[in-house]
Amino acid sequence: MTTAILKQPTEPTEPTAARKPNRSFVHGLITNKKALVGIIVMLVFIALAFLAPVLFPGDPSRITAMASLEPSPEHWLGTTAKGQDVLALTVHGSRSSLFVGLTVGFASTFIGILVGLASAYFGKFIDEALSLVTNVFLLLPGLPLLVILAAFLPPGLGTVILVLVVTGWAGSARVLRSQALSIRSKDFVAAAVVSGERAGRIMFREILPNMASIVMGTLLGCVIYGIGAQAGLEFLGLGDVSTVSWGNNLFWAGNEGALLTGSWWVFVPSGVCIALVAFALALINYAVDEVTNPRLRKIKNPKNTERSAAK
Amino acid sequence: MRFILRRLGFYLIAFWASITLNFLLPRFMPGDPVSRMFARTQGKMQPEQIEALRKMLGVDTRPLWEQYVDYMHNILTGQMGVSISRFPTPVTEVIASQIGWTLLLGGTALVFAAIIGNLLGILAAWRRGGAIDSALPPLLIFIGSFPYFWLAMGALYLFGVVLGWFPIRHAFTDGLEPAFTWEFIGDVGAHLVLPALTIVLVSIGGWMLGMRNTMIATNAEDYITMAEAKGLRPGRVMLRYAARNAMLPSVTSFGMSLGFVVGGAMLTEVVFAYPGVGYQLLNAVQGLDYPLMQGLFLTITAAVLLANFLVDILYVRLDPRVRSN
């Protein structure tokens, strides 16, 4: 799973980021129990997303006469009020949800890297300006901003992704800036500056590779944000309601009164899937922390394990 | 003082940014909002109303900067136009009638979550590795992985529909006259339980873990060992010596959450059809009520900024170190 994430062609940074710590890092991850559980869960979901058209051929949102059936051997998770198979909807829903989550995650991390690195590297006026913009975006109430943006833009998958990136990048920019600042003050960066290397090269070749673990953590956090925020937006009916995704499944469940008619099987699966993916990514995130931070890894004495246990 | 002025400047810039966003969005988006709204209201609007709306939403032939000056002037004098879906009520009036419910819901949830979460955090840190410390954090992290509106749906289904313990929508029973009687207050309280409970459930983990972590650091301080050596009762050491000194970060997050009280309960309000600003914002979006939508967004933003500014001031009082840098 981690390699799958790292190989996405969003950033020029990944080869360098993966270069040095690669083997021990991957080994550390798969021998970490939390990471292993998280990776397996993610792999299952990714496999389901790819296999959805094979497992459930045809349009999962096709309306049939078998409305509001309880779970049974024919329909493992029952049917909706429109007679759609809930299991098919859930499996197909993983495609859009994972796609949007990953895209939003990579795009906001990428912007965060650009803004954070530029801020830390150039300092002075550029830092002041970029930090001001970042802080303003952090402070504007996210969900209302999301809603009002979505209301003005034409509905569609592109809009959802754009809106989520606009409201989601600031947090990662702030985190990455503070980490980049501490590396910026190291001697080897000063040496690179003196030897006349280009700014872009210093930022992406000298500073960024040293931030690999925090970039990874930010990325996982942004993907979790993307999946959750998409679900929230779609639940409000502000996504593209014609696509099948976990958020839209919940929107239709609410719209068709699944709660009031007692059709719990209609709204439970999509919510549980979102939670499982978020939990799996969070587990991988804690594991990355443990693997890359030796202080968290080796301690046997329970008195000093608070960070790993708490996070 | 310089610190406070700097912060004030920052919040003013942030507020200006949100006003400008509000101004630019309808002007640069495809489509003509006014015609869409006109079609929706089916001719209920007066010609002068349409004219005013056109001006407000930028279907206007004057130069952009002139419109901008006009817009800023209107916002700063509290003229946010007239609501379309509740024509002819002014936007400010609609918001004024809703914001109280949001403050009630968000405020109640915040106070309960903060108190319970901090107490759990104190106990967990005090008995490291005990039952609370080992069982609750992973459980709360797992609960926190669920979208909070989904938990709200689950609570509504379980406690509202199946068990029927609590009412499932609105802030009070239809037809009941709002008044300061025990009957009405009890009714509002019953309607408040489920939505507040789901927000508490989702946010409690953050409070607990935050408190637990600072508390653990505090527990290692010399004055705690000193207090124990003096033979003080453990309860006293825990609350007066350790917890009291570990409170500062919690106070900060309490203040920050004050801001989210206004905008943060939005999805919960939608699930329970709770008549606050979040639910109203969704209604405004669905009804293409652009003036109301923009007014709500500005109100929520202003509330968030104000709350954060108050926290900054409070923080300077509580922690002198802030002043020096």
UniProtKB/TrEMBL annotation, chain A:
The chain crosses the membrane at residues 35-56, 98-122, 129-153, 159-176, 207-228, 264-288. It is a multi-pass membrane protein. Residues 98-285 form the ABC transmembrane type-1 domain. Keywords: Cell membrane, Membrane, Transmembrane, Transmembrane helix, Transport. Signal peptide: none annotated. Coiled coil: none annotated. Its main location: membrane. It holds the Pfam family BPD_transp_1. Gene3D superfamilies: MetI-like (1.10.3720.10). It is found in: Cell membrane. Belongs to the binding-protein-dependent transport system permease family. This is ABC transporter permease. It comes from Arthrobacter ramosus. The lineage of its organism: Bacteria, Bacillati, Actinomycetota, Actinomycetes, Micrococcales.
UniProtKB/TrEMBL annotation, chain B:
PANTHER family: OLIGOPEPTIDE TRANSPORT SYSTEM PERMEASE PROTEIN. Coiled coil: none annotated. Pfam families: BPD_transp_1, BPD_transp_1_N. The keyword DNA repair does not apply. The chain crosses the membrane at residues 9-29, 99-126, 138-168, 188-209, 246-274, 294-316. It is a multi-pass membrane protein. This is ABC transporter permease.
